[in-house]
Amino acid sequence: MKVLHVIKELTNGGASMGLLRMCVGGPANVTPAVASLVRPQPEHRATFERAGVEVVAGVEATCTAAAAADIVQVEWWNNPYVNDFLVNTDVSASRILLHSRGHFDAPRMCPSASLLSRVDGCTVTTPSAAANPQFERNRQLAGLPPARCVFSEAGLGTGMSLSGTHRVDKGHGSRITIGYLGTVEPIKMHASMLEIAARVIQAAPEVDFEFAGDGPLDTYRAEADRLGLGQRVRFLGFQSDPAAFLNRLDIFCYPLNPYTYATSEKALQEAMLAGLPCVAFPVGGVRDLLTPDSALLVSTPRQCADACLELVRSRGLRRDYGQRARHRIDGFSERREWRAEIALARAEVMSRPARSRHGLGVRPEDLFDFCTDQRACPTDDLDADQRADVARVAAFVDDDYAAWLDSKTEAPLRPSTSAERIPS
Predict the structure, then answer these.
(1) Which of 271, 270, 17 is nearest to 157 (CA)?
(2) Residues 22 and 342: beta-carbon distance below 8 Å
(3) pLDDT band at 154 (very low <50, low <70, confident <90, very high)
(4) Tens of pLDDT along 380-408?
(5) Is 301 helix (H, G, I), strand (E, B) or coil?
(6) pLDDT at position 409, please?
(7) Measured between alpha carbons, how far is 202 from 211 in angstroms, rounded to an integer?
(8) What element of type H or E holds 94?
(9) CA–CA dist 193, 254 (Å, integer)
(10) Could you tell me the pTM of the whole model?
């Protein structure tokens, strides 16, 4: 079976690395290729080609490759590049599987029935995404089979084995390092993360925080200085070897924005595989991965700081929760069964006749509304702080559309700002 994976752009980010894992570790009877609608950086393209995966770039090359594929698997989150391809591009007879990598509970992240009617099946990367009531209604309206969970497994591209057996707790009398791995931006990380760190450091002088990941790091460093954290908080930038970073931590703290779009949480998976005790808010895909037995789950910034301090003060508790985290990820059924699930989802798509798709001519300024069902993330009853969190996450989608519209028009037709577009 020839499967063409269509993605907005190949990068070194989580979606691309999850795609690479699927290409090289998926069902054995599949010949994968990748189409990057936006021309990727040479080093990112080379990562796939070194693994034996053919890469094409641009819409025209994607359409040509789609004609030769048995299935076109679209790596989807709400972005105008992929949606424009699905809605406005003429595609010869084909079968299309929409593989969603965003959580439908998040703002701007649920596909409309109109968009789903352009594909032949839909899969998700975490169980709770498919449970969103509005997505389920849209799926049924589009006549698609139930969405299978094809979990995005971590473990590729790390320089050291995440065995969980190498951890050596430094114990009492030594410094304790609490770490975060992921995007260091308000679209992903909880707005109170540095205030959480300040509360912990004030109560426990032996604690340092390290943040690994890209983002507006100078802004965060300035905020850390304002809070008087100095060298106790370090922002390391992108880490090409996440296992090495995790190996030097004592505690993994993963507070995400409550409205996160994240699903399979590769950073959290890696921390669990490394045997680290975890503190997290049960939001997005976190609630699928972690249980109260396997991690300290919290609902407020104060509870998060208190949970970190509880682990700081007990070497035995760190050891116990680290072992429980490793046991949980080892036994996570969706992680073990993703190959079987993608094979079943593709078989369901193959049972449908191939069909040609003619572009619908949806105007650029109308594409967002045509493809997005905002009812999946209701905001009517939210307070001001919650609306601010929604706006932070929504910027992930809104900014992409704004830049795309600028590229399409001489006089930019911008969508309204994140705050303005939140239903009142």
Answers:
(1) 17
(2) yes
(3) confident
(4) 999 999 999 999 999 999 999 999 999 98
(5) helix
(6) 77
(7) 18
(8) strand 91-94
(9) 9
(10) 0.90
Sign of CA dihedral 145, 6, 187, 304: positive
Q: Which residues, 6+ apart, have CB-to-CB distance to 73 below 8 Å?
A: 3, 4, 5, 6, 96, 97, 99, 346
Taking phi first (over 0 means left), then psi (-120 to 50 degrees means alpha), and beta for anything else, what does residue 143 get? left
Is 127 in a helix, a strand, or coil?
A: helix
Cα–Cα distance between 338 and 266 in angstroms, integer? Answer: 14
pLDDT in tens, 247-283: 999 999 999 999 999 999 999 999 999 999 999 999 9
Torsion (CA) 278, 177, 250, 239 in degrees, nearest 10: 80
Instruction: Map tokens 């700002």 to a residue.
Output: 417
- One-letter amino acid of 80: P
- Concatenated DSSP letters for 32-43? EEEEESSPPPHH
Other C-beta atoms within 10 Å of 317: how many?
A: 14
Among residues 362, 381, 377, the alpha carbon closest in space to that of 418 is found at 377
CA gap 12, 17 in Å, rounded:
7
Can you read off the two tokens belonging to residue 344?
């079943």
Residue 160 phi, psi dihedral angles, 5° rounding: -135, 155
Rounded Cα–Cα distance for residues 245 and 324 (Å): 20
Q: Is 393 exposed, middle or buried (0-12, 13-18, 19+ CB in 10 A)?
A: buried
Q: Tokens 């789950």 label which residue?
A: 297
